Amino acid sequence: MYKQVLSIDDTEAYLAKYLPDTGIPVEGFGKYSYKIKGVAKTPRSECVKSKSFVVGGHEWRIVCYPRRPQDEGDDAIGIFLQCSDPRQPEGWHVCTEFAFAISNPKDGTCYIGTSRSTKRFTNYGEGWGPPHIIELEKLCNPNGSCLKPIIENDVTMITAFVRVLKDETGLLWHDFVNYDSKKETGYVALTNNGGASFMNPLLQLLFSNNYFRNAVYQIPTEHDGADSVALTLQRIFCVLQTSDSAVGIAELTKYLVWKSLDVSQSHDLLEFTRVLQHKLQSRTKNTPVDGTFQHLFAGKHKRYIKCTHVDYESSQEETFFDVQLEIKDPEGRALRTLQESFKAYVAPQKMDGDKKYDAGEVHGLQDAHKGTVFLEFPPVLHVHLKRSEYNLQKDKQVEIDDQLEFPVRLDLAPYLDESADKTVDWNYQLHGVLVHSGKPPKGNFFAFIKPHAESKWYKFDDDRVIPVTEREVLKSGTDSSTNAHMLVYVRESKEGDILAPITQADTPTHLKSLLQKEQKDHAQKTKEMEETEIHLTTKIITEETFRAYQGFDLALFDDETMPPSDLPTFRVAKEQRFLDFKSTLARDLGYQPEQIRLRPLLAPVDRPRSAVPEDDQTLTMEALRDTTMASSTQDLKLYLEVLDPVHEAQAVESEERQIMIMVKYFNVSDQTLSGIGHFWVKEGQRVADLVPLINTRMKFAKGRRLNIYEELSPGNIVPMDPTDTFAETELLDGDIICFAIRFSAEELANLGRQRLYLDPVSFYEFLTNRVLIQFKPRHTNMAKMIEFGIPMSKKLTYSQMAHLVGERLHHDPAKLRFTNSEQGDPHQVICRQGTVADMIESPDNDTINKILFYELLDLPVDGIETERKVKITWTGAHNREDGTYSFLMPKTASIQDVIDKLMQLSTFITFSRNSTRKIKLFTFHDGQMEKQFSGEELLINVADLENLHATELKTVTTQYDPVAMLKMLQFVKKLSVDGTNYPTWLKTVESILGMTTGKVNLLTSPDQTIGCAEDLIIKQAIAASVDDALVLTVVEAESGMEAFDKIQKHWNSRSKQVIIMKEILQTRFKICDATADIGSHFQVIKNLAGKLFKSGFELTKESFIGLFFHLSLPRLDITPFVNISRRIDARPGGAATISNEQLVQLARTELENFRQNRKITCCEPHTHPTRQCPPSGTIADDELHKSKRRRHC
């Protein structure tokens, strides 16, 4: 609510204040005033309505409740806008924005205005807009600028300002209830997969590029595994193409995320896109679509240095797959438009002063310009806007949220080189925008896409796809709440081909079959889940399953170490009557209903206590489950008792309570524990009375002596006293006892020699620790490739386990080696100490990995533990693998001993003519040479000796393959300007140089001899593998090693400089300290400056000392320094390419801006605090007082 001294009669002024134009086209505007009389006389809760008035072709009314109901608080007026047109058809809607003014009926300047409201009126929902409540107390008395009360003589005036808007998309202010993206737009959304938030909109952008999608479909993937990037992308595209609703692809997109990427960060969008392109390009080689992606996305540009006063130019043409544009100029000012960013990209930079270009012996040092111009743009242009920069105060990359306008139609001809073909159409149409909404690191990404030239624009987010206006798309570049991160432009002349429709016939047949199977499986799972809501699972334990079961309780239901028991299982409707289920069950199992009785296994002991009462005709299966199971989500477990007519007759005649005892037999000879059924005993009978009954059922000899035990818990099996009565044992229905034949001491000794469990107690202990281990072959080329499972105790030793496996494989247990698993894959070789539990149980959590991998060795494992197996692949001419050699070497041997051993096999190794007959031994991983051995390394210190490579040691000549080297370097992530990826870059480049020159650690070995040819290779490799801003630094170097020294110095100095700069900023002079010594403070600054200059900082030392001394004084914040640093880092090449003169000028400009903004008057030069500092570093009291006053300047 607002009060203003303006009149509601001034419609234009009132609208500007309360209902400003939002840019949405207007279909009609109207203003209507409604005078209400007798406000105080109107009964509470009764409303009054104005006459109808028409705006935008629709009828409206003002609805007012003059007095709020008493139970809702103080008296207040409620005002509503009602759409009163009843003649509208089904699905009708109108979008309206409106505001009210309640005013004195005679003075329009005395009013209270309401803020803007919006409403999508439909014939489905409430026909009234949102309420506006105003307390009567504010209306009945003069208030603020109102000299009169708004309600005067019980009369007031309500004026409605109504603007009917044109709903260009049909979805303005839609609530999206029952909204169908596929029906409305023809497209479906990708739901959030929990990974990188930019992934879904990026996949939608790629999907909408039909030429790209068709090329992806043509990549042969029939035999690819689930982790294939190409197959994953095909599946995602096919799902988007065929699904009728939003799809979740978390299972698929996990294969699009690589460990080298932190895809949770928005600035990895560019890297993710490039990695995806590289992955796909590598899969298209020698396929029908080989070169398609390069044709689609690859352009050409030229980097050049051109002398100003002589006719000399150095240039290099390069291929690019995307363009990265700055959104700030080198001075840190925001660029307004995309065209300005392109203009800044191709703007030449001066090279003069101490940055003159060395044009060779003929021309020497010359003033020059350096820059980049485009030679050719691709049919599809990906433009990435640089949305992050390093923040010195926060010491991290931060998002730049400056706005940048971009056009729908973009003419790229102005940014082409003079030599480019100007006859080609270089006009591009905007096809897609990837946008971030909200403040990082929160918020989310979405995409605006125009699928083809004649279509609407659509917004793709995690929930739905909706049509939007072109105005909304362009607004994402100027609205403060959104930031465009990536733009996709398509060349106008190619638009028809690139966005040509794709049909079902273009989808690979094997992909259709795969997705149909997945859809069928998904439908089955959905059906099962739906049935779970109305069905429950019922498991039946019978006499037969009890006899077949070995273990604790009557059956095994849920255990991570062993599979569950195989029991008759039924899916039963929760509302089915128990008696009906019993009848069906009896018929299925071959009984009459009156022949069986069902006993629930009561939680938590899982014992069949009492039978289900059958006198309740309404008892349902769900009610039975809920009263017997500990959780409503558990399965219903029932024991099926087959009635004994003789026992039933005796039970009726006997007055003594009878107990149903479940009985198991432990067979020592067979090492089995199996149920034999149940017995009925009377409470007064003794335990010994059960022995004759058991002997009879088991058909043992009469008088056979038995030992009887009670099964209490897995670790608690106790002998029973034969003289106890069953009442004294406190056994209940369904409790379990176990018996075993009582043997003599001699018989037990014979059985013990067979390594058997001699009593139920020890056997139960085995069962408690039992686990089913799955054994799989460690390698795919082993002689025996069988998979099998063995149940064994977790207490078994390594040797005992090896014997069991050796028996199964018919292999010497001493020559078996085992490896544990992690997520189903081989992990670490198992030591021969410890137990099975140590091998399978994770020390970090409660998980059990029940898969072990085995290897069949030629030698005993204990011999291998004193020796190391060496496996070497010999690489001959043209990097061809000519053979593999395996042998054992003592752990104390050296790598040179391995080379000597390999030389003994030289009859199988072919050296080239005039060879030195020397061997180079190295490791090779992920397509890169990791390490070349000197020969002195001991085998005990080498981690992996079964992945060694050897080749002939050659000396490099000028005859090397630059094309092959540059091709490898295409897949190297370029060294960034800030050097954050320097260690990874160095390792990769050194590996490629090693493969090219034959010398490992060529850059970093201090005693390495580098020839002219090798130095040339180094220079070319570095130039091809660094950020564009660093290329000229490399090109200007006289040699390859000088270029590397410059790069290394730049990286080392930048990290050191930041540390020292922070240290300087922390030495702020404390004005509140009366004992502070400004001379000593200056000396601290000077010492720190010295450290900074030793690190390679390029600035005149005197200028630097003055600058930082000034910034370290009180009442001056660090803003100037932060701005200077930001401007330096924003320059191409950062501090490595800025001259002393430019840096000093930057500092002076920033300080001058700082003084002007804060109206600070600088002290005269002769009063600078550094003047006449005593040698001792102390200052007299009066001088200290003067210096303190000067610090206020």
UniProtKB/TrEMBL annotation:
Q: In which domain of life is the source organism classified?
A: Eukaryota
Q: Which SMART domains match?
A: MATH
Keyword Amino-acid biosynthesis listed: no
- BP GO annotations: protein deubiquitination; proteolysis; regulation of protein stability
PROSITE patterns, per the entry = MATH (PS50144), USP_3 (PS50235)
**GO molecular function per UniProt:** cysteine-type deubiquitinase activity
Q: A Gene Ontology CC term for this entry?
A: nucleus
Catalysed reactions, semicolon-separated: Thiol-dependent hydrolysis of ester, thioester, amide, peptide and isopeptide bonds formed by the C-terminal Gly of ubiquitin (a 76-residue protein attached to proteins as an intracellular targeting signal)
User: Which family, according to the similarity comment?
Assistant: Belongs to the peptidase C19 family.
Q: What is this protein called?
A: ubiquitinyl hydrolase 1
- List the source organism: Puccinia graminis f. sp. tritici
Give the gene symbol.
USP7_20
